[in-house]
Amino acid sequence: MTGYPAGAQVAQNDRIQIQNTVPVAGAPASFADLTAALQPAVVNISTRQSITIPQAQNPFEGTPFGQFFNRRRGGGGPQTREATSLGSGFIVSADGYVVTNNHVVSPDQRAQLEEVTVTLPNGTEYLAEVVGTDPSSDLAVLKIQRAEPFPFVNFGDSAQARVGDWVIAIGNPFGLGGTVTSGIVSAVSRSTGQGGAFDRFIQTDAAINRGNSGGPLFDMQGNVIGINNAILSPSGGSVGIGLAIPAEDAAPIVQALINGEEIMRGYLGVQIQPVDEDIAEALGIEDGIGELVQGVQPGEAAEDAGLQAGDVVISVNGQDVTPDNTLSRIVANIEPGTTVPLTYIRNGSRSRVNLTVGRRPSDEELMQQNMFQGDEEDAPTPPVPDAGNGVMESLLGIQAVEITPQIARQLGQPADTKGLAILAVAPTSDAARRGLSRGVMILSANGRAISSVEDLESVLQDVQDDGREAVLLRVRSRQGATQSLPVRFMDN
């Protein structure tokens, strides 16, 4: 992974020359030579998935009237539907290791991944093996094989990227095939405000659209300094705010996945909040330094060390906690079991304690712990849905989970509450226009009680099969107000 010459290559020691493609000063005369050198290593990635949707049970099944109320021909058995996804990736070794985003190759939780295909720029297709995935960083490594070596590119040093540097992005937007866009680095260490150890991106105005996910962002020396990951956009199309995972974060994870190593990250067990101007004024501390502890998980490292809600953690292991170097990021990069010093402010006084860093739970466990409360130190935030593969996401633009007793308590509801709790809503959906948002509960759809995602998707499928384009949802806000709302389907 390190020490290889820059530019797409056919073997480790067979370098394609890219010198003199960029003048020493000023804008490049053309990106053509650089693109020609790099594009052979950038690939298209497509997946085939199967989604099983259970049929709703006939309420008159087993009664004398059952035969008159069969919902569909063929009975009430589950239906299997096929779904696909499309993205980009790049080859990082002559023997065919491919890097992409985890969300490109990881299907919806209700789907089964059947096949991953990698297509080279010349149109040659290869079935790919998923070598390893890391949902927390949204990275995945695939493997393709052939007798002769593959062209490949190398990671560069993203820490050297400066605002204003030229970059180019190569990928597969909208399934069009290899597409090149250019721009500059708009920001480094950009946080989107979602929190977590990996909420830290290179921002670029090089056009990135749906399908670019997992593709490389190159510097002018032909090194990968970022992995295109997301865009910020009110419309779903590029408006010049693209986000890429920095190579300095991605490269060690990719190498660990290639080596078959387990990804282990440090964890304190706290809910946290950045120190803004108001918090700093209230506590009489410097603005923008440290993070406020909102809560402490029982039995985790922070509780063992005596941290309390209201403490402000200002440094860990000799690193200051800042907006660009968050507590989540610092701790996640400490090996579990390591004892490190931590400095915090309590009641205006600084204190220092040595604590032994714990091991970060899985994303699923973290989301269950803190799904509808404050920001867990490294909890994943559900992505804003678009017209995705699942029926609920595709038709309503909603992501939701079954309400468990733990989630019900977080929402201030009785433990036996049944329904779905909304995690995220696509901003362009009718659901968003109707005021549905994170934490709202879906209790029924078209008069049928909902207790699982499959229940809701069965209703949606019935509505769609009947040629209608809206569903009546019975919803309850966190404040307890219950109402029925008609929600129209998204335009897909």
Automatic annotation (TrEMBL):
NCBIfam families: degP_htrA_DO
Family matches, as PROSITE patterns: PDZ
Keyword Protease: yes
This protein's name: Probable periplasmic serine endoprotease DegP-like
Subcellular locations according to the entry: Periplasm
Domain PDZ: from-to ranges: 257-335
Reaction catalysed by this enzyme: Acts on substrates that are at least partially unfolded. The cleavage site P1 residue is normally between a pair of hydrophobic residues, such as Val-|-Val
Active site: 103 (charge relay system), 138 (charge relay system), 213 (charge relay system)
InterPro entries named in the record: PDZ, PDZ_sf, Pept_S1C_Do, Peptidase_S1_PA, Peptidase_S1C
Sites where the protein binds substrate: 103, 138, 211-213
Alphabetized GO MF terms: serine-type endopeptidase activity
EC number: 3.4.21.107
Chief location bin: periplasm
Cross-referenced PANTHER family: PERIPLASMIC SERINE ENDOPROTEASE DEGP-LIKE-RELATED, SERINE PROTEASE FAMILY S1C HTRA-RELATED
Superkingdom of origin: Bacteria
UniProt record, GO biological process: proteolysis
Keywords: Hydrolase, Periplasm, Protease, Repeat, Serine protease, Signal, Stress response
Entry's family note: Belongs to the peptidase S1C family.
